[in-house]
Fold this sequence. Notes:
Immunoglobulin-like
Amino acid sequence: MRWTPGMLTNGMRIFLIAVALPAGAYAQLFMYGIDLKRNRFVKVNVATTEVTELGKPDPNVTYEAMAFDPATSFVFLAADVSNTGSLRRATKTDLNASDPVPITFVGNFPSPDIESLSVNPVTGGLYGVNNDSRRLVLIDKNTGNATNISSSSQPLLNGVQGLAFTITDPPLLYAVARISGENRLVQVDFNVGTASLVHPTNTIGFNGKIKALAFAPGPDIFTPGTLYGFHESGKEFITIDINTGIGTVYNVIDPENNRQIEGLTFLKPDKLIPVELSRFSATLVQEGVLLSWTTETETENLGFHVYRSRTKEGEYKRINPELIPGQGNTARAHTYQFVDQNVQTGKTYYYKLADQDYNGTLTFHGPIEITVSVVPAQFVLEQNYPNPFKPGSYSVSTQIRYQLREAGHVSLTIFDVLGRSVIQLVNETQQPGSYSIMWDGKDASGRLVAEGVYFYRLKTDKTSQVKKMLVIP
């Protein structure tokens, strides 16, 4: 989605950044920061720019940076107390708690001058820049110990207050540094800690500091998304071209303000729909069981895993040797296939599909069932299960199983009570064998069907069968 232009209702001085994400992927988008004048955590609605005051942190602590860690669901904060730096943590729920906010002390940093934090989306490592030593550091999330990555000081890591990983695999790390009084975009090798200018001469622009950075997801897991920053003195959201290192104003915040918000903030989605799955089927082929699935949209989808069990409620074990790559972020339909070759005739198998997002979270679909058999003796269309069923999420899809005695063109179509085609689930040439396909209760346009009676017809060149199903609200 895009940032919605508009003024913050309270008028404030904001030093924060949030990731902009694809439209439709989330129910609501929020930025978080710390208002130093009111000593409050605040939440900013991206769509309306409405500011909500949350809990109060300890007034004796100055927070320099914030970073959200999806793997642990903690908000990590770089703090400064009496010139002693430390790592602290809270949860999103804690930020909304009654005063005071229950922030946990993790441990002290070797320096108070860590003003940027970012989490590696693949490894989960927490990184920062020590502006005293001009070194990238890896921070232990359990103790706060900061380990130098480079063996020597990096002159380009000067005055860093913004640090951000791309949401890619592998990830890339960028920082905004103050070099000769100018804002410059720097790429940092997080393995060895060395830094290099993105462009030898171009500057980001803007007179004041760029206080924070964050990347939006790109179109896939291999392409970086847009890099966003916040210009302190101009109170402007900016985007930075990672190829040229030049910044452009994206949105201006009301310059008349009575707030002062510090800290690297994050955008936390309230609801993530990583994959909208429209089809998941199992088919007997010569090589084994062919699993096929179609996604209508994908959001932050790293890829898929396939799990198998001998019983529906039994233990499911992963059978794909490596991740089946997803499309990252896409609004286009994509079809995937995987063949399970380790099957035996006469046995029944149950399969689940799991999509994995950028944070490592798995979302399961299924199960679907198939029996490995010799060529069926007859043409069979079985009753769908469950029936009746309630559409609306994949967990309550219904499964349709059928058997083909001969090879030929096959169609499987859903009709309403007036005989109108709702959706065609199968329209292809198939070999003899047993088949299974799921229907999620949506029509050809992707809309959920109304409650009532529906018919499904299996048709080949020589014969056809029709059965009835019931959709309930």
